[in-house]
Amino acid sequence: MTQPLDDADRNERHNARMKKLQAARARLMETKTIERGLIIVHTGPGKGKSTAAMGMACRIIGHGWKVSIIQFIKGAMTTGETAVFNAFPDQAEIRAMGEGFTWDTQDRARDIAKAREAWEAAKARIMDPEWKMVVLDELNIVLRYDYLPLDEVLDVLAAKPADTHIVVTGRNAKPELIEMADLVTEMTQVKHPFKDGVKAQAGVEF
Amino acid sequence: MTQPLDDADRNERHNARMKKLQAARARLMETKTIERGLIIVHTGPGKGKSTAAMGMACRIIGHGWKVSIIQFIKGAMTTGETAVFNAFPDQAEIRAMGEGFTWDTQDRARDIAKAREAWEAAKARIMDPEWKMVVLDELNIVLRYDYLPLDEVLDVLAAKPADTHIVVTGRNAKPELIEMADLVTEMTQVKHPFKDGVKAQAGVEF
C-alpha cells in the first residue's frame, strides 16, 4: 500500500507538472504565427451551433469591427440576441431572410427563391471587406436541401477577402465545406430536456 | 432506369413530406409544457463551449433579465464580449476571478484559494433569484483538479431557485454533474487551424 501524498507533496508535484505544461505550450504557440480570416463551421445534431456564432459576433463587436448575421432558415422570430445587437446599430445587423422552418412553409419553390435572396445579400456582405465577420446561419440546411448550388457557395467562400471570418452553421454540413473550412466543431447532444417534457425556454432556446 | 423527377414533381413530394413533418412536430411540442430554469453543461474538447454560453447570456439580456458570468480559470483577459456586456451594466456582469490558466500559475494552493473565492461569489449569485442566469465558466476544470469539493457544488445547484438557468462550461465535465443536468452538449473538434500554424484570432478566440 502506498503512502497517501500529503497536501504539500501534492501541491509541489502539481506545480512541477504545470511548469512543464507551460513550457510545452509556449513552444507550441511560437509556431502559430499566421493571421487570417477563417472559414468556421458549427455542425452536428446538438445545441449551440447558432448560439456560439452569436457569441463570436459579440467578440467582433467588442473589438470595434462589423458583423453581419444572415439567417437563412429562421423567419422574423424575435430572438433575445436581436435586442443586444440592435444596441450596436453601426456594427451589427441581423437579417432574418428565411420564412421559418421548412416544415412550416411546405413550399419548396418559395424556399428556393428565399434562399437565393438571402444568398445574394450574404454575397454582398462577404465581398465587402468592411464586414469583418459574416455569419451564414443555417446555410447548411439550405445546402442539404439543394436550395442553392454548392459549387457557387464554395466559389464565393474561396474568393472572400483575406481578413474576413465566415461562420456557417447548421447540422449536416457538406463534406466539401468541411474540407475547405479552417475550423470545424461538431455539437453533439448528450442530454436534452425536451425528453422530459420541458418546453423551449426564453433565454436558452430563443 | 427510373425516369428523373421533374421539378414540379420534386416540389410536390417535398411539400407533402414537410406537411407530415410539421404535423409530427406539432404533436411533439404539445407534450412540452414544463417551464423551469435549466442546468446546462457545455463540455467536450471542441471549441464553442464558453462562446455558446456568451450567446445565451445575450439572449437573457435581450429578454430584459440579468445574467452573471463568473470566470473560474481565465484571468483578467480583455475579451471582445466584455465590451458588449459592459453596454448593459444593469443586466450583465463578467467577473474574471481566475488567475489565468493553471499551467501559468504553477501554484496549486493559490489556485484552490482563487477557486474558493470565485465559488463563493457564484453561490451568492445563484441563490439570488434576481439573476436569471449564472454562467460558471470553466467550472469543470476546477472540479477536475479537485479545487472544489464536487458534493458542495452539486448541493448548491440542486438548491438553486426554480427559474434560474445555470450554465457550466469546460471540458471533462464530471459524470455526476452530467447526471444532474437538464441539457448537455458536447463540442467535438473536427478541424482546428492551430494545426496549420494559424494563431489565435481576435474576434474568434477572444
TrEMBL record, chains A, B:
Pathway: Cofactor biosynthesis; adenosylcobalamin biosynthesis; adenosylcobalamin from cob(II)yrinate a,c-diamide: step 2/7. It is found in: Cytoplasm. One of its GO terms (biological process) is porphyrin-containing compound biosynthetic process. Belongs to the Cob(I)alamin adenosyltransferase family. It is an enzyme of class 2 (transferase). Required for both de novo synthesis of the corrin ring for the assimilation of exogenous corrinoids. Participates in the adenosylation of a variety of incomplete and complete corrinoids. This is Corrinoid adenosyltransferase. The lineage of its organism: Bacteria, Pseudomonadati, Pseudomonadota, Alphaproteobacteria, Caulobacterales. It comes from Caulobacter mirabilis. Its main location: cytoplasm.
